[in-house]
Design goal:
2 domains; globular; about 180 residues; 7 helices
């Protein structure tokens, strides 16, 4: 059923829904901008994914309390998988990311149609926790250059970490060592 999210809607909810929408935008917009960056895409791509996902879910979804958009746990996987085919910034990169997003979306729609959600129950908690911890580590290491104000290295995750550590000015490292020595 189309627009099932509006079933049972009452006009008295408009002010509360407006406040909820503003709060959601305050959280989701920066998140979507960062998620696009994690995937190696321009920031506006995150906003487009958020708008498209929200509109599509409003039309075809059934839960009016769900927020839909690009996911920061999937963005590094996109970037890593597509990096094997094209370098970030290459003209083919955005096309490949878009194609991958459409293919994954189609796969999820098909999984929903054939009611294959039970497959997620087969993933154990340690596997899920390990996956999320690995993604968190990838995100932290990927954001370190921006936080430290250094050039963003390219390569494997380990290569990026080594490059970031090597790029930290020696003065900062020696100051940290002297502060640690005085605390002992």
């Amino acid at each position: 059923m189309l627009f099932a999210t509006l079933r049972g809607f009452r006009p008295a909810w408009i002010s509360s829904d407006l406040i909820a929408g503003i709060l959601l935008a305050a959280i989701a917009i920066p998140e979507q901008l960062a998620t696009a960056r994690l995937a190696g895409m321009p920031a506006q791509t995150g906003l487009a994914a958020f708008a498209a996902g929200t509109l599509a879910f409003a039309i075809a979804g059934s839960n009016r309390f769900v927020s839909v958009g690009a996911d920061s746990t999937i963005a590094p996987i996109f970037a890593g998988g597509i990096a094997a085919l094209a370098i970030t910034g290459a003209p083919a990169y955005p096309v490949l990311v878009s194609l991958a997003a459409v293919m994954i979306g189609a796969t999820l729609v098909l999984a929903g149609i054939i009611r294959a959600g039970w497959i997620a129950d087969l993933l154990s908690i340690p596997v899920t926790t390990g996956f999320l911890a690995g993604i968190a580590l990838h995100i932290v290491i990927g954001q370190l250059p921006a936080v430290l104000g250094i050039a963003t290295p390219h390569g494997s995750l380990l290569h990026e970490l080594v490059a970031v550590v090597a790029a930290i000015p020696m003065r900062t490292r020696s100051r940290s060592r002297s502060a640690a020595g005085s605390c002992s």
